[in-house]
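To: structure desk
From: M.T.
Subject: fold request, one chain
Message: Could you run this one when you get a chance? Sequence is below, nothing fancy, just the single chain.
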Amino acid sequence: MALLNLNFTQSEVQNAQKDSFAPIPAGNYTAEVNRSEVKQTKDGRGSYLALSLKVLEGEFAGRLVFQNITLTNANATAQIIGREQMAQLAGACGILSLKDSEQLHGIPVGIRVAIETDKSGQYEPRNSVKKFFGLNNPMQSNSQFGSQPQGFNAPQGNPAPAPQGNPWARQG
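Reply: Done. C-alpha cells follow.
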C-alpha cells in the first residue's frame, strides 16, 4: 500500500477528464515531428516509422497527431506508398538525403489531417495525416493543397511551376 496525501481542485479534475486523445477536426495544420521511432510490424515481416507530430498553432496547439509510415513490407504496394509518404515529409522539411529520422524533428511543416473511423467499431476514431507539405516552399502553391494550414502565409505572386517527377524516387 502507498499512502498518498493529494488534494485536487475542481479545475484539475475537469482538465484531467478531457479527452486529449480525441481526434482534432479534419483540416490543415502547422506541425512539427517531435518523436520518431522505427518499429517492427506485428507479423515481424516489415517495419514502419512511428511519428508523433505536435500541432504548433491555433486552437489545437500542443495537441499530438500520430502517424505510421511503412518502411519495409512484404506487400510491395504498401512499401511504395510508404516511400512516397517519406519523400513527401522529407521534401516538406527541405531534406533531400535522409540518414536519420531525427533530421525531421523540429521543422515546421503543413499537414493535412483526416479522421479515420474503424469499420468494425472496435476502435475509437483517430486522426491520420493524408499529406505533408512545406510551408515556405514556393514550388508548392496553396491551390495544390486546398485551404491554407493554420498559420500559413501563402507566397505572393505566381508560384513557381511544380517540378516534374519525384526527386526522392528510387533511381534505376
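Reply (cont.): Residues 76-93 form the longest helix (18 residues). Let me know if you need anything else for the meeting.
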